[in-house]
């Protein structure tokens, strides 16, 4: 943690500028260019003079609009100074680079004449502006800070890491136990809202803890046990029906492809039909009643017990969404605030141990007004300033009396911001560009900070990336950033109020362009982020071109969205008019090529072209001397320019998933490279593997392909992978084998020994007959993931048990391995083990211990006969697919919850695990041997899928199947038998899906369970023929019915009294022969709200006598005769359905 020494926003900038101006390089440049060196001295004096009053000015800006304007003017000219200094710093190396390509006879003369430049007039103009501002400081009453150092600015000081108690325990809240229990009781209740899903709205001020409370409920064990389908969606201020529908689909792990809202909503409805789910909609701001009613429409198809939770600041939102219940969060009590404050401010100690701080702390807490975010933020700040003097300063600061707007928390957060170091303030305010709710990647953000020069700071020997990591951790520790709690510790977001604070601090210098905003933007804007929802990009960009000092421009484009009509014109104007850019992101833009004029952006440090269609880069890109980050992942690139080595400042080059065929010559000269995701070895001189020799700063992931092109193993030794201690992941790929010398290939891989710090290793298509020694010993002691794929000539595997930290092991497509022997050492850490396509594998001598193994996959190992490990105490998931000869008992695993057995008819099932929640069985013998045992011994089974049963002679009635009250979803696919096992025994069955059961003639004796809410029948012609005997009319719980079948010989459907009057949703899909939808079959459906007719080309019309009055939505997709007659306002029968609230006639 960096010690949080307060500093004005501009202090760190001034310090960097002062150091540049004082450097020998700048003085030499002025002399060689015959510039007035006195200008440097005057500029230094003026900047120093201003620097000493920055701290006081930053405090007084909230009391005086004149001071605020003075600071804004100063910030503007500070950017101008930075721009000028960067241009000067870039001028010399660019001229030298240009001179190197000229004949030697003209070099001396050209070098001298090249220093004739226009900088002097600009320096004089800037000096005049800054001197004017310096004179104003006295009129504004700004005095030199007595605490300021003679050099000005602030330093960054490393401090020992605090114990883990400094990290917020998000599972712990204060004063919300009653609210939490009230929420959970509501969610577990049996509230009946008819055709609607009950909604509860958590309402409260920003920073009150609405989201934290909702997240705690989301993760409560009782909720996990009662809701197997949960989703969390962040909504934000701008209502976007399409984007929200996609977000909900993805959160439920459904596909969300396409841009058609109707189809996506239908997809969502299908996915949720008959399922009990819980959906959290976090931070809802607005949206009309009509918009929300349309958006929520598919959600009403869930089964009974489904619930929706909404968090919002606005009670009107709760009204618009027709909430069943509102929970209004009140401010915390004084005692609760104090408990929270102690937790964050006192290092986990008892506050009474610090009596002086305790009394001051209570007064500070009292000023927080009962707002949890304020208490938490200030507590984290004061933990870093653990002295009575510092606490008194914060208690007595004038900033408590300052207010902006009507939410008191602003002054609290502003106080926390004020006490940040200068460079941390600048980094934080830069993040105002991110939309509310956006998750940003740690590495990406650090690269953006670096591109804007925010990571230049004296007092540390850390690299810019290391400093960026530290500063980001600091922002997390004081709760300005929130870390993802879903296993990804590299993704972060900001609370909405923190985002508001960042915007307030950034002011007019950072701009987010969203929605249909087309206007003149402030000329002082330096950073712009364009929303993917931008309505008219072409008009907007014309206004952007007027901002000559723009430093960063991001087009945050979603897939399938065309922000601009012509990207070629966009490039030409952008590169010619915005020459001050340091950061440019054209990610996902529909770019076919990059314009040569990119070389105009001489100060560019960050360029993102990933996910574009660019196949090659122009040679002129090699003139971008300052370029540090070049992102090209997932684009169509096949080669890099030959002069690529000139980008000597390049630190991050992402080539992942490109089609690069070779590396540019002499890439090894780019010794600052830290990221190089892909390296392709070729035989050409200057492009071989030896180019890696000097790249010892490489970090993260490196994929080396084309190793078959290595001629001499000595070259690999010279690549010194063993010295690359920062490398975390290595992917080794052999491409075309051809006529190879096996011994040489083995020597090559032996010489490719990585550093012992390596975390992940993949070896693919290795042509040797044995693996290298370093893979079988203890050398890779930190290895956690190992993947061996397509090693066709290796017959023996290394001793993997020797890797003490190995968590994931995958072995696939190794056709010569026949026996996998036991290891002398146990797999102490292994959690996932995957065997795939091991065509010759016959025997697994598995006596090793797998104490922590959670997932075991054995797939397409057709000759495997024996054995399987028998004692797996931690196993949770077992998948055995296409292992036809396997004769072994499934492991003893008391904790297993997911079992998938397919194509393993000889598997021995003695005792079925008792805690299974989901089971997939495929194959006649597997089903026969396991179904009865499964149902007898599983009180937790919720989902069962059976398929591939092909035995017409089996009498299922002879099986003594027990009843089950836990099973709620049953799917039967490819059932080639006349009979089906009893279904009425599943007393709590909610969803039944029947797919491709051509011989099934009827439902089993005893009928369907009365609890059934959703029934889907697909390709079951004989069952359809016996529909008169179904007895669906008696199922009072059935809400959703779907049929997908040719309906051969069925002229009219459904017949009268076939369907129950409780039906809420009825779907006809791919009924190619159906002509008439029977009015009498729909007449009694008084609860029907949703009617879907999909891909039914022969349906002539809708019922002439009309549709049920209860109908809310009618969707017709790819039904040409219906479209012709019922198209909105154009079809001759449109008037018969125009009263239905939602009508969609598509395709």
Automatic annotation (TrEMBL):
<keyword id="KW-0677">Repeat</keyword>
<feature type="domain" description="NB-ARC">
    <location>
        <begin position="179"/>
        <end position="348"/>
    </location>
</feature>
<dbReference type="InterPro" id="IPR058922">
    <property type="entry name" value="WHD_DRP"/>
</dbReference>
<dbReference type="GO" id="GO:0016787">
    <property type="term" value="F:hydrolase activity"/>
</dbReference>
<keyword id="KW-0378">Hydrolase</keyword>
<dbReference type="InterPro" id="IPR041118">
    <property type="entry name" value="Rx_N"/>
</dbReference>
<dbReference type="GO" id="GO:0005524">
    <property type="term" value="F:ATP binding"/>
</dbReference>
<dbReference type="InterPro" id="IPR042197">
    <property type="entry name" value="Apaf_helical"/>
</dbReference>
<dbReference type="InterPro" id="IPR056789">
    <property type="entry name" value="LRR_R13L1-DRL21"/>
</dbReference>
<dbReference type="GO" id="GO:0006952">
    <property type="term" value="P:defense response"/>
</dbReference>
<dbReference type="Pfam" id="PF18052">
    <property type="entry name" value="Rx_N"/>
</dbReference>
<keyword id="KW-0433">Leucine-rich repeat</keyword>
<dbReference type="InterPro" id="IPR003591">
    <property type="entry name" value="Leu-rich_rpt_typical-subtyp"/>
</dbReference>
<dbReference type="Pfam" id="PF25019">
    <property type="entry name" value="LRR_R13L1-DRL21"/>
</dbReference>
<feature type="domain" description="R13L1/DRL21-like LRR repeat region">
    <location>
        <begin position="689"/>
        <end position="814"/>
    </location>
</feature>
<dbReference type="InterPro" id="IPR036388">
    <property type="entry name" value="WH-like_DNA-bd_sf"/>
</dbReference>
<protein>
    <submittedName>
        <fullName>Putative P-loop containing nucleoside triphosphate hydrolase, leucine-rich repeat domain, L</fullName>
    </submittedName>
</protein>
<feature type="domain" description="Disease resistance N-terminal">
    <location>
        <begin position="9"/>
        <end position="101"/>
    </location>
</feature>
<feature type="domain" description="Disease resistance protein winged helix">
    <location>
        <begin position="433"/>
        <end position="502"/>
    </location>
</feature>
<keyword id="KW-0067">ATP-binding</keyword>
<dbReference type="InterPro" id="IPR027417">
    <property type="entry name" value="P-loop_NTPase"/>
</dbReference>
<dbReference type="Pfam" id="PF23559">
    <property type="entry name" value="WHD_DRP"/>
</dbReference>
<keyword id="KW-0611">Plant defense</keyword>
<dbReference type="GO" id="GO:0051707">
    <property type="term" value="P:response to other organism"/>
</dbReference>
<dbReference type="InterPro" id="IPR032675">
    <property type="entry name" value="LRR_dom_sf"/>
</dbReference>
<dbReference type="GO" id="GO:0043531">
    <property type="term" value="F:ADP binding"/>
</dbReference>
<dbReference type="InterPro" id="IPR002182">
    <property type="entry name" value="NB-ARC"/>
</dbReference>
<dbReference type="Pfam" id="PF00931">
    <property type="entry name" value="NB-ARC"/>
</dbReference>
<keyword id="KW-0547">Nucleotide-binding</keyword>
